[in-house]
Amino acid sequence: MQFDVLTLFPEMFEPIKTSILGKAQEKKAISINIINIRDFSKDKHKKVDDMPYGGGAGMVIKPDVVYDAYMSIKNKENAKVIYLSPQGKTLNQDKVEKLSKEDHLILLCGHYEGIDQRVLDEIVDEEISIGDYVLTGGELPSMVLIDSVSRYVEGVLANDSIKEESFSNGMLEYPQYTRPEIFLGKKVPEVLISRTSWKYK
Ligand code: 21W
């Protein structure tokens, strides 16, 4: 699975180089490409926003800069473009599983100021939110989407993790224990100790 992320804050994406997603990229199970929208500014001051027509506070991201950043993505014929925005439909596990069947996702990170509607109408297939609370931008939502979707991609998780999840419908959770057998005077439940095969003490 290929993810391309269009953002004004590429440095926010360090965390997804770590841990399971880092391993998944090394193994080529997924590929994550971060594109800095600012690199496509033609302005000598690298300006990406401008005053809103009709007035109002704040600035609006210019359509041409976002469009040029999008056009720089290779082999996007079969890609689905998702705009992360508070107005979008809320992400859930069902949607996550469906998205994992795509080959290529392009994630456009929203911003407080907003993006010129004309480029959104031109390139966006779907608008997704991650919940009813206000964030500062679409960067964390993009990473939430990448993380949740990647878990369903072949080769990302150990095979038994996702199997165990589908058996339990994701609902059947239970307390877990490891060594030491006694911690702060509390013993691991006897029923579990008697069923543990690695009991080399
Ligand atoms: C916050 C964007 C407020 C837009 C007209 C002019 C992406 C997000 C975001 C943000 C506004 C998600 C306005 C859950 C989120 C995101 C930043 C409102 C004000 N309107 N999921 N100015 N929560 N948030 N725009 O915040 O981009 S997915």
How does this structure look, described?
With 201 residues, this protein is of the alpha/beta class. The protein has a single domain, classed as 3-Layer(aba) Sandwich (Alpha/beta knot). 28% of the residues lie in helices and 20% in strands. It is built from seven helices and nine strands. It has helices at residues 19-26, 63-71, 93-99, 117-123, 139-150, 159-168, 190-193; strands spanning 2-7, 31-36, 49-50, 60-61, 80-90, 104-109, 126-129, 182-183, 186-187. Helix 2 runs parallel beside helix 4 (117-123). It is elongated, with a radius of gyration of 22 Å. The two termini are 43 Å apart. The model has no long low-confidence stretch (mean pLDDT 94). The structure holds ligand 21W. The site of ligand 21W has 18 residues, from strand 5.
Search tags:
201 residues; alpha/beta; Alpha/beta knot; 5-stranded parallel beta sheet; two-stranded antiparallel ribbon; 7 helices; elongated; binds ligand 21W
